[in-house]
Amino acid sequence: MGIVWDINVERPEFPQLKSNLEADLVVVGLGGSGLTALLHAAGRGLNIIGIDADRIAAGAAGRNGGLLLAGIADFHHNVRKDLGVARATALYQHTLDEMDRIQATTPQAVSRIGALRIAEDATELADTYAHRDALLADGFPVEDYEGEQGVGILIPTDGTFHPAKRAVQLAELAQAAGAQIFTHSPANKIESGVVTTNQGSIRTKHIVVAVDGNLGKVLPEIADQIQPTRLQMISTEPELKLNLKYAVYTRQGWDYWQQLPDGRIAIGGGRDLAIDQEATDVVKPTQMMRDYLEHKLESIGATALVEHHWAAIVSYTASGLPIVKQVQPGVWAVGAYCGTGNVVGALLARSVVDQCIDGHSQVVADFVS
């Protein structure tokens, strides 16, 4: 049924790789993470090439909920307990800094007016306030919220973005900075010093594999460390009866939605109701999740007809931390963002480029320490 993000967005065409080339660094996977790495590497003066098995942002990068949220997958108070205050605070600040860069790089695709964490019951409200108190304790902005969209907290540094618009803008900026882009060119073999596709190859010193959902397929040596997972969303026709100012995540983050400037509502979630079913790399949407999301729309007062239903594949790790590691000499894996690839993916892909060039990145060190 299509994707709401493809409405009125024309994605540029790029050639297939049909020759043998050389580069300083190759990025495999051109979603938001890979495109960020591509632009950053070009800006640092590298001879840089990016390839993708499909078009740009064909996977979850162009099919997600469009939320920009600070922090890693778990809420800040939980991360403090698991990783310690110092590390949790460092990771949160890194994501805030990356959101500033995202906004500065593609301002036309980003809105940072804040986002809400809304509680559905008293138990969740108590946890929401624990989340708030941890943010305040570490000096991060947060406000109580009680209004038309429910009761919870407003995190004013958060916001939304348009996934397809951002991807197109990143690709255009990267090309203008000198990057070469090839699409419909799957990496059939990745080994130290060379990436091989169906019709060509690239010799290079550094390889950054910036893939989320299919990371284990591209790099089989780490397949046992990640779980491909399907996320599903629906969107409506323009909704005239509601004016939802803020994006929302609720039920411990299992459900999330935003109303777009044209009135359409994009909503995702419900995966916790079918954990085993959604632990898959099959992209096809299901009727069960559609029924759940339609019921959720009704619960927030939406009456517009559903226009689109789609799915995307991301990856999770057992620890809740993303994969950022050198899997072969000169080959870095970046992915398995546990549902937070919009910010964490861009942050890590860009930081791995710095790691390749400088031999050290504090961001990478903080994530893997």
Question: How would you characterize the overall build of this protein?
Answer:
With 369 residues, the protein is α+β, with helices and mostly antiparallel strands. The chain has two domains: 173 residues, 3-Layer(bba) Sandwich (FAD/NAD(P)-binding domain); 138 residues, D-Amino Acid Oxidase, subunit A, domain 2 (D-Amino Acid Oxidase, Chain A, domain 2, 2-Layer Sandwich), CATH 3.30.9. It is 32% helix and 27% strand. The strands form three sheets. Strands 1, 2, 9, 10, 11, 12, 18 and 19 form an eight-stranded mixed beta sheet that branches. A hairpin with a 4-residue loop joins strand 11 and strand 12. It is globular, with a radius of gyration of 20 Å. It starts with 19 loop residues before the first strand and ends with a helix.
**Order of helix and strand elements from N to C terminus:** EHEEHHEEHEEEHEEEEHEEEEHHEEEHH
Enter the CATH topology name of the largest domain.
Answer: FAD/NAD(P)-binding domain
CATH class of the largest domain reads Alpha Beta
* SS-based class: alpha+beta
List the keywords:
369 residues; alpha+beta; FAD/NAD(P)-binding domain; D-Amino Acid Oxidase, Chain A, domain 2; 8-stranded mixed sheet; 10 helices
Summarize the structure.
The protein folds into two domains: 4-63 and 163-225 and 319-368, FAD/NAD(P)-binding domain (3-Layer(bba) Sandwich); 112-159 and 227-316, D-Amino Acid Oxidase, subunit A, domain 2 (D-Amino Acid Oxidase, Chain A, domain 2), CATH 3.30.9.
